[in-house]
Amino acid sequence: MKKIEISTSAIVFKDISELPKDDKMLMEKAIEARGNAYAPYSKFNVGAALLLENNEIVLGNNQENAAYPSGMCAERVAIWNAGSHFPGVKILKLAITASSTISKVDKPVGPCGACRQTLSEFEINQKQPFELLFMGEVGEVVKTESLLSLLPFSFDSAYL
Ligand code: THU
């Protein structure tokens, strides 16, 4: 028997104004994408912006549906948008932001488990980590060096 320790680290910025210029620009794109979210049921609007190695910025936002499980998170809309338009082009960064029309989202909103799983496959395939930045509507921004650092013991195609 053995015990193993798993640790991860993140940088926390006090707000968007403290971010390095390129990160701030990407987060502003995520905010822009958030404005087009279709979230009439949860009232929780999420925007995501990916910076690709070819300098393209690809956006996504959550898209809900009256049949609730048929909706989709912003992160997966964004990454599949990138996958469908720029297959094989590496992702350098992903910025995520969330706001709500019923409460102030003032804590960083990380990607849900299903999105982490989906995003992890892209990071594994490109053999290079991509940075993740996430925030609420206001307040702190969390920055991590890789997606997989947020998903220990993850499942991937190697098991199949
Ligand atoms: N949502 C996202 O877009 N990303 C996440 O990582 C978590 C949740 C969306 C799904 C749904 O439209 C709304 O937020 C409330 O869960």
From TrEMBL:
It catalyses: cytidine + H2O + H(+) = uridine + NH4(+); 2'-deoxycytidine + H2O + H(+) = 2'-deoxyuridine + NH4(+). Coiled coil: none annotated. Transmembrane segments: none annotated. GO terms for cellular component: cytosol. Zn(2+) binds at C73, C112, C115. Its cofactor is Zn(2+). Keywords: Hydrolase, Metal-binding, Zinc. The active site is at E75. GO terms for molecular function: cytidine deaminase activity; identical protein binding; zinc ion binding. One of its GO terms (biological process) is pyrimidine-containing compound metabolic process. Its EC number is 3.5.4.5. Residues 21-158 form the CMP/dCMP-type deaminase domain. It is an enzyme of class 3 (hydrolase). InterPro entries: APOBEC/CMP_deaminase_Zn-bd, CMP_dCMP_dom, Cyt/Deoxycyt_deaminase, Cyt_deam_tetra, Cytidine_deaminase-like. This is Cytidine deaminase. It comes from Polaribacter haliotis.
